[in-house]
What we know:
alpha/beta; disordered N terminus
Amino acid sequence: MTTPAATDTRPAATYTSDEMMTVAAARVLQDGKRCFVGIGLPSTAANLARTTHARDLVLIYESGTLGSKPTRLPASIGDGILAETADAVITVPEVFNYWLQPGRIDIGFLGAAQLDKYGNINTTVIGGDYHHPAVRLPGAGGAPEIAAACGEVFVVVRQSRRSFVDTIDFITSFGHGRGRGERAALGLRGAGPTLVITDLGIMRPDDTGELILTALHPGVTVEQVRDATGWDLQTASDLARIEPPSEEELSALRSLKAAR
């Protein structure tokens, strides 16, 4: 939920920027949608949504669990709680062949190590070349297929000039390429990244496919977001201000994180 952007005069926040980001990411997930969930920040937000406003959100994990309802945050896609609480457990090939590729999943919820202005994601290597990088990251997993075939993709990631770069070092998961129309030219089914949620605000692609700032978290300025972005970030004409977390949202999030 958002209100028009304005000068923030509220007292000091009682929540962290990570909590604000997670709550904002959870809010965009609608009840009844089928969501392919990545581990980490996406999983935290998706499980928060399912325990608050979106009780019938269907969580699908790459390990083959459909409709998981974990009572704590899973440590990995192989965490047993995902299978124990799932409506069904199928094989990994079935998840991709019969659910993802035919277009049966509404939302792919992903993280990123690097993201460029067209929503292309890097989780593979940073610096140098592929064989001799400065940093080798965990890799692709199922993210390229998720980015290609889900109805749309939401990305949740902490924002800095290290993560939001003009040109990523390696395209792991295709966003909008170098502009709108490249996905269609490649025959990709899904709409690609339609929403990026950070610890500073929210971005959406404009008509060209370039990400622009559309909403700010409480107390954050446009200048702060631009300073944390590696390209000349544009802003929407109707820039909004995101509402702070409610007590219910914070309590639910903290309970999830505290559960063992």
